Sequence to fold (251 residues):
Amino acid sequence: MKKILISLVAIVVVGAAAIGGTIAFYNDTEVSAGNVFTAGTIDLTVDSSGAVYNDGTVAGSSWDAKNLDGEEFFNFDDIKPADRGSRNISLHVGDNDAWACLLVTNQVNDENTIINPEAIALDTTSGPQGGELAQNTDVLVWQDNDNSGSYTNGDDELYNGALSGLNNITVSDSITGSPLTNAQTREIYIAWCAGDQTVDGANGTIACDGGGMGDVVQTDKFSADMTVYAVQVRNNTDFKCSEVQLPVDGS
Ligand SMILES: [Ca+2]
Ligand SMILES: [Ca+2]
Ligand SMILES: [Ca+2]
Ligand SMILES: [Ca+2]
Fold:
């Protein structure tokens, strides 16, 4: 009898082990909860440490980083030979790397009127693109890599030529420069000269000689829009500033 009882106990124990085995397999779980796709941003803002005109600071020409709202980079109504100036703009993007360009559009090189000195100087081209100011004004655009506030060796020359030749300026794209990042403000300067501008990166000087401007420029007026354009780097590895075309107003 005792032997039988022991056998029953053994059966019960084996049965319990079998039931427990179904919940004792090795297992593990890893949870990914609350999955979300949120669109990123390319949010460009621009600040300026100001503008200089004939060695004097232009009043009210600086502003903190913001979305531009009517700020003019340039507005001068009495340009004379050897007048000169510069404008700083600083570009900021958010946490997404961006390519950046300066786009100059809607250029009007207006003759305004042909006054007597112009006629004597044999100015015969008239109308909204018949002026001579843009081709007689020089412009240097540079990226101030060392934050010196001047054009020095090691800075990137983005454009150096006549105002009339300003179109799409590359700050950074797939061809040249490095992407704008959240960590780094990009300092851009635009220096101009009514006449011939000479640049010396070795000593950081920019000289302006108005001697070649001539009377054909009197009363002429140049106007243009300058757009700062930023676009995502990711999935956009072939981007070129030279190929950007802004939408036409009203389209
Ligand atoms: Ca003319
Ligand atoms: Ca510099
Ligand atoms: Ca003229
Ligand atoms: Ca004129």
